[in-house]
Design goal:
heterodimer; A: MetI-like fold; 74% helix; globular; B: mainly alpha; MetI-like fold
């Protein structure tokens, strides 16, 4: 098992390196001088120079061949020449990343790492709750659909899940805001907590923080704020999980051991939960893992609609403000996180399925 | 067919000499027998008719189409779906907007199919180092979540319909590359390829005459489903203000234009564009699922 994990980690490395390279190249896709584009046409020459220097735009892209050439001509020492070879934009970017230095926002001048720490918990909290919603509704719906195949419930839930995967989540968000926020007034339509409520920040997850503070009112309010964004963000994964659970269950229910289990007089409940569900779970877990990527990307839409102060809204605001270092880091962090989650899913899959482990 | 006349029981169908049906004819018959696929075809036909006929029947100029006296009017006999914040008829804009969604879908799937298909065919057919190089690059692109990648590309290249199509197209490249490669790898092991090689058919001819036609059905399925996703992503970009720019009546941009008026209770500016996006995506998803079932040769029993 350890061997398998190590092998998977090593096979992930080239992809991760490629991802950093692509994210780095991102700034060079900007038409024109990135520094000027970021600061706007009326930027002072001084500011442009500062940004160019901060981003290292005056250095060569991948490798600095000038330094070894100088060393060969005897202008600088051999050691300096070799060291100078690696003095490039990309390697500098990579080196800073590895040291945990994510750079600075162009406009706010705050270190990006600090901003990230501030925004990240909001997105995590929203994603976790969305996933909880998707699983809590999707799996039971799939099971019932499979066991009552071709019933009215099956038909409705499958039509519902087809509509669910076809729905633009920002539109679903807007509809929820209209019905449950504006019309019925059940849930707040934006933000994580009312502005006048302050909560001591421990984890940054407001539900956890309010429990830690023993503040029941804050917990209720935090949950109320979470309901609509979570439903909006969780609907697509819910639909996909329901479809996957149904088809996995249908396949398992045809197996001989299910018939045997029924034949020896086990109750339907036991057969479904102990015999069928356990075996249908593998593909469902994989699909749940794969949805996490979609969740984090969907957070941009959901957070924008609900003014949720997380990474998604942060990226969106940064795009509008042309704050590309922030966009760069946020894209990188989200992508790396997804790669890690997928790795965890693979490992758990191997853990659950001995066939893969021993291949 | 003289035998049929001697058949003692059922003369209508003699299975031994059943009329030959082509692969595509069979697939079409199966497709039209599926209710879901039929529903998908109806939705897509309506969309196509709207997109193609709208400019013929009625010339629409979004720049001059505003009437401040009719701002945010609820649905009525005059304006079936009401008017938006500039007094523009929502239904008219909706019908003309179908063009953008279809255009983005077709062009971006086309980009992905062309580039990804060629890369995948090359990777599978040439193999070795090239295969490794191409597929590693595809893995890297696939590591990014689709929507995030599209947003990032449009963010640096600037908003607009052209960049939207390119961005969504790039997202499709690795998907089609993987599909094409896996098809080549599975087909080249088939006996008929060995047979063709044995009789001295050139590698080029094998690729184009023997392998390519057999990769078609999964590619058709993936393209149809891709059209749905492309429409969804393009609308998302439009909603974020990164896609087609107002006043052009793109559905995502229409939503982003008018969602501020939701608080005033103007539901009619929000419901129709979103429902249109959803129906279009649903149509392609239904047809794609139907095609998958219809084109699967294992279903021919």
């Amino acid at each position: 098992m350890t061997k398998y994990i190590i092998r998977r980690l090593i096979s992930l490395l080239p992809t991760l390196l490629g991802v950093t390279l692509l994210v780095f190249m991102f700034i060079h896709l900007i038409p024109g001088d990135p520094a000027v584009v970021m600061l706007g046409e009326h930027a002072s020459a001084e500011n442009v120079k500062r940004i160019r220097q901060q981003l290292g735009l005056d250095k060569p892209l991948l490798l600095n061949f000038e330094a070894p050439a100088q060393a060969l001509r005897g202008e600088i020492g051999i050691g300096e020449g070799v060291k100078g070879l690696f003095d490039s934009q990309y390697l500098g970017f990579l080196g800073r990343l590895l040291r945990g230095d994510l750079g600075r926002s162009v406009h706010e001048k705050t270190p990006i790492a600090d901003l990230l720490k501030l925004k990240f918990p909001a997105t995590i909290e929203l994603s976790l709750l969305s996933m909880a919603f998707a699983i809590a509704v999707g799996i039971p719906a799939g099971i019932v659909s499979a066991t009552r195949r071709n019933s009215i419930f099956d038909g409705l839930s499958m039509v519902g899940s087809l509509i669910g995967v076809s729905m633009p989540i920002f539109w679903l968000g807007l509809m929820l805001i209209y019905f449950f926020g504006v019309k019925l007034g059940w849930f707040p339509t934006y933000g994580r907590l009312p502005v006048d409520l302050s909560l001591e920040r421990v984890t940054g997850l407001y539900t956890v923080d309010s429990i830690l503070a023993g503040d029941v009112r804050a917990l209720g309010l935090a949950l109320k704020h979470l309901v609509m964004p979570s439903v909006a963000l969780g609907t697509i994964p819910m639909a996909i999980i329901a479809r996957m659970t149904r088809s996995a269950m249908l396949e398992v229910l045809q197996e001989d051991y299910i018939r045997t289990a029924y034949a020896k007089g086990l109750s339907e409940r036991t057969v479904i939960i102990r015999h069928a569900l356990k075996n249908a779970f593998l593909p469902v877990i994989t699909i749940i893992g794969l949805q996490i990527g979609g969740l984090l990307a969907g957070a941009i839409m959901t957070e924008t609609v609900f003014s949720w102060p997380g990474v998604g809204k942060w990226v969106y605001d940064a795009i509008l403000a042309r704050d590309y270092p922030v966009v760069q880091v946020a894209v990188l962090v989200i992508t790396l996180l997804i790669a890690l989650v997928n790795l965890l899913v693979d490992i758990s899959y191997a853990f659950l399925n001995p066939k893969i482990r021993f291949e | 067919m003289s035998e049929t006349t001697f058949s003692p029981v059922d003369t209508s169908v003699d299975w031994a000499v059943r009329k030959h049906r082509s692969l595509w004819g069979d697939a079409w018959r199966r497709l039209t027998s599926l209710n879901t696929a039929r529903a998908g075809m109806v939705i897509i036909s309506v969309l196509l008719v709207g997109a193609l006929l709208a400019p013929v029947v009625h010339h629409y100029d979004p720049k001059t189409d505003s009437s401040l006296r009719d701002r945010l009017k609820p649905p009525s006999g005059e304006h079936i779906l009401g008017t938006d914040n500039l007094g523009r008829d929502v239904l008219v804009r909706l019908i003309h907007g179908a063009r953008y969604s279809l255009l983005v879908g077709i062009i971006s799937v086309g980009i992905g199919l062309l580039i990804g298909g060629i890369l995948g065919l090359l990777a599978g057919f040439v193999g070795r180092g090239l295969d490794n190089l191409i597929m590693r690059i595809m893995d890297i692109i696939l590591a990014f979540p689709a929507m995030l990648l599209a947003i990032a590309i449009v963010a640096v290249r600037g908003p607009g319909l052209n960049n939207t199509m390119v961005a969504v197209g790039v997202v499709f490249v690795p998907i089609f590359a993987r599909l094409a490669r896996s098809m080549v790898l599975s087909i080249r092991e088939q006996d008929y390829i060995t047979a063709a090689t044995c009789v001295g058919v050139s590698r080029f001819r094998i690729l184009f005459r023997h392998i390519l036609p057999n990769t078609l059905s999964p590619i058709i399925v993936q393209s149809t489903l891709g059209l749905g996703s492309a429409i969804l992503w393009a609308a998302g970009l439009g909603f974020l203000g990164l896609g087609q720019q107002p006043p052009k009546p793109e559905w995502g941009a229409m939503l982003s234009d008018s969602y501020k008026f939701l608080a005033k209770g103007a539901w009619w500016v929000i419901v129709p564009p979103g429902a249109a996006i959803m129906l279009a995506v649903l149509g392609f998803n239904l047809l794609g699922d139907g095609l998958r079932d219809a084109l699967d040769p294992r279903m021919q029993t």
